[in-house]
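Students often ask why inverse folding is considered easier than folding. One informal answer: many sequences map to the same fold, so there is more than one right answer. In these notes we will look at a single instance of the problem. The structure comes first.
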C-alpha cells in the first residue's frame, strides 16, 4: 500500500508541480477551499478536503504545508498584511495541533517559509546558521510561521524558499513582459542579490527532505549560485534575445508597490548549505542552465 501525503497549497505554483511528482509514488490528499477547482487542476486521482473538515491526521505519513496568500501580488495595506499573516499562521497552527493530538502522527512535517526571514542583507553570505535578521515585515511573517511549525511533535523541516523560477507563473512571469518588449533592465542599483531556485530543484529538494530521515530544522531552498539583480537582468535579456538597456529607478518601484517594494529593492545572498552538506545535487545550479530549461 502506498504511503499517504497531505498537502496544503497544492493548487499553487510549487504545489501543482509537487503533486504531479509525488502522486506517482504516494496517495495524495490536498487541503483546499475549493475541492472542485482543485480536482480540475490536479486530476481525479487526488483526494480533496477543506480545512474545516480536516479533523485528524492519523492516516498521513507526511504533511507538506505550502499554503499562504501570495506576498507580492498586492500592496501591503493593513488588511493585506493581515491576510498574508493569517493565511500562513492559521493553517500551520491547525496542522501542528492535529499532529500533536494524533495517536499516530506523520513521520515528517514539511512547512513553508521564505528567505524573507533574513530581511535585507546586502552581499553578506547567508546560510541556515545566520541569525542576525533585519527587522521588517517579511521577517515578522516568516518568524512566527516557523515558530509555529517547529512546535510539531514529529520531524520538522522548514523551507526557506527563494524566488522560484518556472514557466508556469510566479515571479518570473511578472518579469517577462518588459523584457519581451525590449524595456527590461536592472531595478535600482541592481546590486541587490536574488536568491532563486528552479522549480524542479524545489520539488526535488522537498522529495529529499521527505525521504531523508535525518533531515530536520530549517533549510534554504535556493540555488547554490545567487546572482545580483543586474546579472539576472542581463541573463534574462540574453535568454529572450532582447536588449537590457533600461534601469528602473527605486522611486518608480516604491510608487508602484509601496512597502512591498522592499522585496525587490533589497536582497539576500542565500546559500543552501544544509542541502549541499547532505549531498543534494542541483539539476540547475546556475542561472544560465535554469533559464535555458524554461519555455520562455
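Output (designed amino acids):
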Amino acid at each position: 500500500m502506498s504511503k499517504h501525503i497531505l498537502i496544503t497549497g497544492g493548487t499553487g505554483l510549487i504545489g501543482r508541480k509537487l503533486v504531479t511528482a509525488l502522486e506517482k509514488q504516494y496517495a495524495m490528499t490536498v487541503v483546499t477551499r475549493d475541492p472542485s477547482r482543485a480536482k480540475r487542476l490536479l486530476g481525479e486521482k487526488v483526494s480533496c478536503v477543506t480545512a474545516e473538515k480536516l479533523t485528524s491526521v492519523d492516516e498521513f505519513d507526511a504533511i507538506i504545508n505550502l499554503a499562504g496568500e501570495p506576498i507580492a501580488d498586492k500592496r501591503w495595506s493593513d488588511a493585506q498584511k493581515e491576510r498574508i499573516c493569517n493565511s500562513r499562521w492559521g493553517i500551520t497552527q491547525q496542522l501542528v495541533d492535529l499532529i500533536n493530538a494524533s495517536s499516530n502522527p506523520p513521520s515528517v512535517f514539511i512547512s513553508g517559509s521564505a528567505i524573507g526571514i533574513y530581511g535585507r542583507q546586502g552581499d553578506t553570505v547567508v546560510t541556515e546558521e545566520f541569525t542576525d535578521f533585519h527587522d521588517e515585515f517579511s521577517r515578522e511573517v516568516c518568524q512566527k510561521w516557523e515558530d509555529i511549525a517547529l512546535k510539531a511533535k514529529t520531524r520538522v523541516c522548514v523551507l526557506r524558499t527563494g524566488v522560484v523560477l518556472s514557466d508556469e507563473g510566479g515571479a518570473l512571469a511578472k518579469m517577462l513582459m518588459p523584457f519581451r518588449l525590449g524595456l527590461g533592465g536592472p531595478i535600482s542599483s541592481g546590486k541587490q542579490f536574488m536568491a532563486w531556485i528552479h522549480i524542479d530543484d524545489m520539488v526535488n529538494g522537498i522529495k529529499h527532505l521527505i525521504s531523508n530521515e535525518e533531515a530536520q530544522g530549517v533549510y534554504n531552498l535556493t540555488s547554490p549560485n545567487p546572482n545580483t539583480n543586474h546579472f539576472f537582468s542581463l541573463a534574462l535579456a540574453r535568454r529572450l534575445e532582447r536588449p537590457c538597456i533600461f534601469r528602473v529607478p527605486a522611486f518608480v518601484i516604491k510608487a508602484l508597490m509601496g512597502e512591498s517594494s522592499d522585496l525587490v529593492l533589497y536582497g539576500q545572498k542565500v546559500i543552501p548549505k544544509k542541502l549541499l552538506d547532505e549531498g543534494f545535487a542541483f539539476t540547475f545550479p546556475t542561472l544560465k542552465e535554469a533559464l535555458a530549461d524554461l519555455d520562455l
